[in-house]
Amino acid sequence: MEKSAVETKILADALTPRQIVEELDKYIIGQFEAKRSVAIALRNRARRQMLTDDMQDEVSPKNIIMIGSTGVGKTEIARRLARLVDAPFIKVEASKYTEIGYVGRDVESMIRDLTELSVSKVKAEQTTAVEEAALELAEERLLDCLLPMPRALKSQPRSKPTDEFDVDEDIDIDDIDIDEDEDEIQLPFEFETTDEQNEALEKQRERHLKTREKLRQQLKEGKFEDRPVEINMKSRSMPFVEIFSPGGIEEMDINFKDMFSNILPNQTKKRRVPVSEARQILMQEEAEKLIDMDAVISDAIERVENSGIVFLDEIDKIAGRESRQGPDVSREGVQRDILPIIEGSTVATKYGAVRTHHILFIAAGAFHVSNPSDLIPELQGRFPIRVELKSLNKSDFQSILTEPKNALVKQYTALLQTEGIEATITEDAIDEIAALAFRVNESVEDIGARRLHTIMEKLFENLFFDAPDLEKKSVTVDADYVRGELAEIVKDQDLSRYIL
After folding, report:
1. Calpha distance 63→136 (Å, rounded)
2. Which CATH class is domain 3-125+298-388?
3. What pLDDT, on the 0 to 100 scale, is given for residue 14?
4. Does residue 55 carry a pLDDT above 80?
5. Residue 326 CA to chain centroid, in angstroms?
6. Which band of pLDDT confidence, cut at 50, 70 and 90, is reported for residue 116?
């Protein structure tokens, strides 16, 4: 396929901004401006890959700052976006880097963690791709455990039986007589065998192979799933090594796991497990052998560099305050350490160097006591797109309760169905719950949609407790039920502050 055709396919396979917003609408209510911004940023990634190589390096991602109180959907938008395009995604809290001090050496760990997640993701995909081949190899090893080959035949090459046989014939493994402990002296030279001995060995080999194929058929039919079998598996224990390094082991660029695996001999241990469990263990081992880890790491790093998304939460916590007395070195220090990563730098990981030039950074913060303008100017310039998310009102709460793909009402009714209880939540109950959530957010503290979780949990608390013992298997939750369970708590401001 020519380059132009490949480029056209990249853009054709990518979702359009309108499609991205429609997908996000299935899980997130409102916040159209924020969805629109992230959809455009995502589409621009596909557009960048259609440019010439020298132009691609010049086009940097348009990082985004989301401004809004907690619970309005900032994290959910970023998380759903990454899942939508199957991109490496990590969420980090910017405030945690202030705990290290103003040096902030640990800020590069976000890229290392993102790379680790990407490697695990690609490895899982490759494991799925080689699953059939790994299953066949695991099956061969299982047959070796169930029906060991006699010593006299081990020197002979394994082959399929030549004549026809009835695979439907039932075999009881316990009735198979295999002399595993026969005394046989291995000499450095071989005796010449007669034609009669060769013919006898050939018949014994054919008989063994026929039995093996019949066992294979019964193994596929699941007749030995609960039968215990003894297998040799790799021992995963590694020596414990404690390293004292202020920068952490990652800065030393040493992968001690691989180093010890090369130095120490491979250790195996015997385990007696059911055939069903043994199959999974052996499949994992065989899949490890079939996977090309160099290709996995190369693909994972490429995905991080071109498709990775880092969600920097609580960025307002490292912004300076207007009322501060003098410079805050810890906060500004962290900003200056984060800046090179967002600008574009090369981070050393145990899998190799990772360039951050085209990773998309989405920052978020409430900015109640600070403003985006309180960030250092260099960092502000790296977030050219700013979106303000709106606080949720009563109608938003009603939509959140019912409209998303896995809405709260659907979740709670499904939980009660596990106890055999059919719960019906009426429209007036949903209106009452939404009104209570909005009222408590206004009077206590605005925590957005998370208020619905606290109210729903308190509302269904008694029902969840009594559910296993209820004789009546149908329950109707209406507005009166909601008021009866929650009215006293809502009236008492001090009580609602702690409970809701």
Report:
1. 47
2. alpha beta
3. 75
4. yes
5. 43
6. very high
CATH 2.60.40.10, domain 394-499, yes or no: no
Of the candidates 358, 364, 309, the residue with the CA atom closest to the CA atom of residue 89: 309
Query: What residues have CB less than 8 Å from 102, skipping those under 6 apart?
Result: 329, 330, 332, 333, 334
The reported pLDDT for the residue numbered 42 is 85
Kindly report, as residue ranges, where domains of CATH 1.10.8.60 are found in the chain. 394-499
Instruction: Please state, in angstroms and as integers, the Cα–Cα distance from residue 23 to each residue in 2, 194, 382, 399, following that order.
Output: 32, 76, 28, 16
| CA distance readout (Å), 277 to 99, 110, 146, 230, 399 | 44, 36, 14, 11, 45
Average pLDDT over residues 366-388: 86
> Please, what is the end-to-end C-alpha distance for the chain in angstroms?
60
Structure tokens at 90: 């990590």
Tokens 């308190």, located at residue = 458
What does pTM read for this prediction?
Answer: 0.74
Q: Tokens at residue 150, please? A: 């006699």
What CA–CA distance (Å, rounded) separates 158 from 216? Answer: 15
- For the chain, where do the domains classified as CATH 3.40.50.300 start and end? 3-125+298-388
